[in-house]
Amino acid sequence: MKKTIGIQGVKGSYHHAVAVAYFGSDIEIDECMSFQELVYSLEKGKCTDAVMAIENSIAGSIIPNYAYIDEHNLTIFGEYYLPIHHCLMALEGQNIDNIKEVYSHPMALLQCKDFFKKHNHIKLVEDTDTAAVANRINQKQLKGVAAIAGEIAADIYNLNILAKEIQTIKTNSTRFFILNTQKPTVKNKDINKASLKFILDHKRGSLATILNVMSDCRLNLTKIQSLPVIEQPWKYAFFVDTTFENYDNYNKAVSILKIMAAEFKILGEYQNQKV
Question: In this predicted structure, what is the pLDDT of residue 201?
Answer without folding.
Answer: 80
